[in-house]
Design goal:
7-stranded mixed sheet, 23% helix, globular, alpha/beta, 11 strands, 170 residues
Length: 170
């Protein structure tokens, strides 16, 4: 995270009842992001500030203690249906990593066209089966069997992209 105090509470609240452990990697925020993360029970680790998240994701994975990892950004949240599905799935997994659809919300509208849907991302995986290289917006490197979740809004990660023109331009 980097200065995500406005978005972080919704993200962390969506993990309630799902995650046994929450690891937050902070890239030197100057706002109250770290305090908010700790209030939600997250373990917070510092990482040097970069212009891309891929190295920080690998760092977060290295800090996680559990066998299954979910990567979620501060501007994203899990639905109850997705949490229920993933909790059931790890009891008898069909794959080592899962591509989850992402519902992109821009200016408070779901972008269903122009390549914004279906937006599959590898976000749930068995530790050791997924890692990112150092290239910005890179597709993660994987080992083992992958599986796409149902291409349905009810199983999608909600991604609240841009809420204003100013944020979009920035």
């Amino acid at each position: 995270i980097l200065n995500e105090e406005k978005k972080l509470p919704r993200c962390l609240a969506s993990l309630k009842g799902f995650a046994n452990e929450v690891v937050v990697v902070d890239m030197m925020s100057t706002d109250s992001s770290c305090e908010i993360a700790r209030e939600y029970g997250a373990k917070v680790y510092k990482h040097k500030k970069l212009n891309h998240v891929e190295p920080a994701r690998n760092f977060a994975i290295s800090k996680a203690k559990n066998d299954w990892i979910l990567i979620i950004d501060a501007d994203e949240e899990l639905s109850e249906n997705l949490k229920t599905f993933l909790k059931q799935e790890i009891k008898k997994p069909q794959a080592d990593f899962y591509r989850i659809p992402r519902k992109n919300i821009i200016f408070d509208k779901w972008m269903k066209h122009s390549g914004w849907w279906l937006d599959f991302n590898i976000r749930f995986f068995k530790k050791g089966s997924v890692s990112w290289n150092e290239v910005i917006h890179s597709v993660p490197m994987t080992t083992g069997k992958g599986m796409d979740l149902l291409a349905s809004e009810e199983f999608a990660i909600k991604h609240r992209h841009y809420s204003s023109i100013e944020e979009y331009i920035t």
